[in-house]
Write a structure and sequence with these properties.
Structural class: alpha+beta
Number of domains: 1
Radius of gyration: 17 Å
Strand content: 5-15%
Distance between the termini: 21 Å
Helix content: 55-70%
Number of helices: 8
């Protein structure tokens, strides 16, 4: 059974976007790494786990052919909105905390929450500014910059830079949305540590079980 386009899917260690929502694994943190704000990291990890839990239930029901109730969507929206409020407070106070502050998994958790803040695109754009600054210091993941960059640009009606936001063709096969510089997209993706676009699409096809329909 195909997923509802409102849902997101997880493919191993990569992140795949479907419509306006996505999921990604929260990275395991090296316990030997010292952090200046372990309490904030713990809070963000808990928020990310709750974020994914409400989506997992919707995806489980969809894949099982069960009805996804209005209450399921309402629960997800409630979690997302409460997390947006807290993420605003965090970024207002700390900017985008680097690995040295909250660890790589804490940074990934914050990214997950911000990426789901579609109800406040202005906040996403502000968060992207802070994420870029932290990445330039070597304290954030380049691929997160790529994903959030595309998220913000799509919300503004602009073409993507990295092709992370997926659309569907007439056969319901995943394809990238409009890309600004398609000829050089793989170069840009490589610069932030991402796989080539074709590989990204193939992973999505395999995960969705659409090899027969969408394979070459």
């Amino acid at each position: 059974m195909s997923l509802n386009p409102r849902l997101s899917i997880r493919i191993c260690a990569t992140v795949v976007f479907v419509s306006s929502v996505f999921m990604c694994p929260v990275l395991a943190q090296n316990s030997s790494q010292k952090m200046e704000n372990s309490e904030l990291r713990t809070e963000l990890l808990h928020m990310a786990q709750k974020d994914q839990a409400v989506q997992d239930e919707i995806i489980r029901k969809s894949q099982a052919g069960e009805t996804v109730e209005a209450s399921d969507w309402a629960r997800k929206d409630s979690v997302f909105l409460s997390h947006i409020h807290r993420a605003r407070e965090i970024i207002e106070k700390h900017g985008w905390p680097g690995f040295d502050k909250i660890g790589e998994d804490g940074s990934q958790s914050l990214f997950l929450i911000v990426q789901h803040a579609d109800a406040d695109p202005a906040f996403q754009k502000k968060a992207l500014h802070h994420l870029n600054a932290t990445f330039e210091k070597g304290q954030a993941l380049g691929k997160n910059v790529a994903y959030l960059t595309d998220r913000v640009r799509v919300a503004e009606g602009l073409p993507q830079v990295y092709g992370t936001q997926l659309d569907y063709d007439d056969n319901a096969c995943p394809i990238p949305g409009h890309i600004e510089n398609e000829e050089n997209v793989d170069i840009l993706r490589a610069e932030v540590g991402m796989e080539p676009l074709n590989e990204y699409i193939k992973n999505a096809i395999v995960y969705m079980g659409k090899e027969d329909r969408c394979g070459e």
